[in-house]
Write a structure and sequence with these properties.
Radius of gyration: 22 Å
Mean pLDDT: 86
Number of strands: 0
Structural class: mainly alpha
Helix content: over 70%
Oligomer: single chain
Shape: globular
Amino acid sequence: MLEYIYQTTGLLLLAFSFQTFLDKENPKRLGTGLFWLIYGVTFIFGAMIPNWVTGLMVLALTALAAGGFMGVGNYGTTKDEERQKTASVLKNKLFIPAAIVPVGTVAISQFTSLGALVGLGLASIASIIVALMITKSKPMHSLSEGRRLIDSIGWAAILSQFLAALGYLFNQAGVGDTVAQIVKMMIPENMLLINVIAYCAGMMIFTVVMGNAFAAFAVITTGIGIPLLVLEFGGNAAIIGVLGMLSGYCGTLMTPMAANFNVVPAALLELKNKHHVIMMQVIPGLIILAFNIFVMYSFAF
């Protein structure tokens, strides 16, 4: 079932690609269309393509993004005045499709054996159907709006997936073991609080560097969380893991590397300072980090 969700996602990306190739108002339609075409193929045929071919495709995506071959075009969307008029009529009904995605995902993951990713895919499809019914729009309009949004985000749309893969590679390369050795050299034995601080702060700092808490989790938890906090000090693995990931999210709030969280919103909101979102999140992030350290030290051991 999950493979079908991936293939559906790939088909959507192919539709975006073909629309882009035909969009003569996009001065970079070839590069943009090729980017979404390659990305879509990885979703549709990922299980069948040899790993080295997928690697070449990833390099091609990187070249297209880094070379500035991506741009925006004409999406045939409604004007702001029309949107405001429609919004004044529909009012809070507009939030129903948005609410279906998280509610449907949680419900499917909790009450079926399909899992969260399949739940997300099915809930997203249901959300689109409900949105079309509420707004009385045509499916093609939804497709055009989807292309507009993903073009606005650009290459950053796939950054989290890239960084998660990078975290896996770091873990396979033994970076976690190296981190554990460094921590043991720097921190005296039997100092639980210092080890908790090192783990939570390490999750935050590594996430700032990599831009993805999942990537940091694989490395820091392997290097500090499991060998030191769980095995050596006998901590509760569930509490340590949850608070460790939450500490990583504190780093997500503070880094431009998490472009889909911090840079993309600034671009979509047309803020003058592209780092304004990060500046507003640094203090709350540090407060949450301190809270995580307190809770972990107090209740995980």
